[in-house]
Amino acid sequence: MDRPKEDQIRYAGLAGGITGSVTRTLCQPFDVIKIRLQLQVEPIKSQSPKSKYRTIFQTIGTVYREESMLAFWKGHNAAQVLSMTQGVAQFTFYERFNGVLRGMSAFEGRDRARIFLCGACSGSFATFTVMPLDVIKTRLVSQDPNGGYRNAFHAVSSICQNEGLPGLYRGLGPAIMQTAPLTGGQYMFYNLFGDVFKRIESAPQDTLLGPTELMVCGALSGLCTKLILYPLDLVKRRLQIQGFSEGRRTYGKHFVCKHLLQCMYRVVRKEGFLGLYKGLSSSLLKAAVTSAIFFTLYDKLLYSLNKHL
User: Fold this and answer.
1) How crowded is residue 268: how many other Cβ atoms within 10 Å of its Cβ?
2) What proportions of the chain, in percent to the nearest 5, are helix, strand and coil?
3) Residue 42 Ramachandran class (φ > 0 left, ψ -120 to 50 alpha, else beta)
């Protein structure tokens, strides 16, 4: 990921866009399950009869039985555009910003700090760019089977009409607070674990790791960062469905809050501290798989593009 050659920037956006698209297609079901669990106010316990979703496997079965296999790709069109746009924005910004900071004396010998800062800034920029798509995706995934919005375009027009432009940026605060350290941490951990592998194998620092090592590094980086910052992701989802209670009548109690701190307070008060970690198992599984595919495919694709195009 940390390349010294300027020509690596050339195809960063293309590689990032393709990587984001492929990763989203493969991992969308994990996202659907995670969001359903995050938004449920009732306890996520196998012994809770009043809860619609109780475990990961029970949730999968319920979604499949009530809404068919296609429900696991609900909101996929918006999510696909989101992933491609985010991939292009994030990796293009990262590679260019990294190239600028690499030449600054202040970051000489401080590779970890430089990589973290580049990742944090690129992630924040990409998050702001795609936030409306993230709101639309969340609502499409969480709405009643035969209610709410007809499609992504209907969602955009309805939100703008009923909630105004700010409605498309619900949850932006916690999203930025989560994304900056999350993305920076992913890049940092990814390079850290990559260096560990190279030391173990006594390989030069500019050696491109094999697919297995890249997948392990990506999976570990995703797990580490997601575990630390998960509550902000849950708060972001809860904020994104505010004003959308009419479209979620079949999912139990509707959670109401106005801002980040109130959201966290009400979650802890009504659902306990562990309520901030609802859907964590599904999220960690998604983070590991997504990061493994994401970084592995990006590294291999960028290398191929620069080599053959």
Assistant:
1) 14
2) 75, 0, 25
3) beta
| Ranges under pLDDT 50 in the chain | 1-6
pLDDT at 39: 92
3-class SS of residue 274: helix
SS (H, E, C) 195-262: HHHHHHCCCCCCCCCCHHHHHHHHHHHHHHHHHHHHHHHHHHHHHHCCCCHHHCHHHCCCCCCCCHHH
Q: Of 114, 90, 89, nearest to 100 (Cα)?
A: 114
pLDDT at 165: 92
Other C-beta atoms lying within 10 Å of the C-beta of residue 224: 19
d(CA 150, CA 57): 28
Instruction: List, for residues 96-131, the tens digit of each pLDDT value.
Output: 888 888 878 888 778 878 888 888 888 888 889 889
d(CA 285, CA 304) in angstroms, rounded, equals 28
Q: Which residues have CB under 8 Å from 110's CB, separation 6+? A: none
Contacts by residues 203-208 (CB-CB < 8 Å, ≥ 24 positions apart): 206/4, 208/299, 208/303
* pTM, entire model: 0.69
Place of tokens 């959201």: 263
CA 187 – CA 1 distance, rounded (Å): 8
Q: What does the angle CA 116 – CA 121 – CA 125 come to, to the nearest 5 degrees?
A: 150
**How wide is the angle at C-alpha 224 spanned by C-alphas 222 and 227, nearest 5°?**
100
Q: At what angle do helices 280-308 and 12-39 cross, to 10 degrees?
A: 170
